[in-house]
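Q: I'm writing up a methods section and want to include an example of the input and output format. Could you take the sequence below and give the corresponding predicted C-alpha cells, formatted cleanly so I can copy it straight into the document?
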Amino acid sequence: MKKELQVFIPMNRWPADDRPREKLISKGASLLSNAELLALLLGTGNKNQSALDLSKQVLALSNNRLAELSCKTLIELQKIKGIGEAKAIVIIAALEISRRREAEQPIDKARILSSADAAQLIQPLIADLPYETFNVMHLSRNNTLLKTEQISKGGVSGTVVDAKIIFKSAIESLASGLILCHNHPSGNLQPSQEDIKITEQLHQAGKLLGIQVYDHIIVSSKGFFSFADEGYIK
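A: Here is the clean output for your methods example:
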C-alpha cells in the first residue's frame, strides 16, 4: 500500500475560523490554546510546518507545561528545527513577562501573616529559575511588604549570601522585619547545612540590629519549606 503524501498548507490559506489570529480577534485570547498563542508569537513556521505545528513541537519539549518551558535556555530551544535565535528570544521574553506579571499582582501593599503568604508571593518570581537565587522581603511594623530584593544569584547548587548587604538595605528601607527566600532548582525542598547555618547567622545579626528575621522560605515548583514552621527560627 502506498503511503499517502501529506500536502503542507500554509496557515494563511487555512479557513479563517482555524487561524489563531482571526480566532483571537473574533473570540478573544482566552479561548485559544497554548499552542495557538505560541504560534502567534512565532509568527511563521518553516517550509514544511506551520507556526502552529512548530509551536506544538516547542511545547512537547517541555511536556506541554509552560512552567517547564520557562526553564529552557536559548540553546535548548534552538535544538528544534525551525526555532532560530530570534524565535527562541521571543519565547523566553514572553514567558519572563508572564512570570513578572504573575509576581506583580499580589505584591502591592500585601500583608504577610504566614509562611504560605510569603511563599505565594515569592514562588512566581524564583521557583522555576534554573539557577539558585537569594531574595529578601522587607516588611514594615504591621507586616506590610515594602519590597522584595534579590541579593545574589549563582549556579544550580548555591549562591553567595552577604549579611552586610542584606542589613544595609534593610536599614535604608526602614524595614522592621525580613523574610529570607531562596529557590532549589533541583526541586528538593529540604534545607542544606549551609542553609541552616546562614539562617541562624542572619537571625542573630537581626536581633542585634532590632530587625526581626521572621522566616526563611525555600521554594521550588513542587512547593515550599518554612524554617519558622519547622522550628528552625524561634
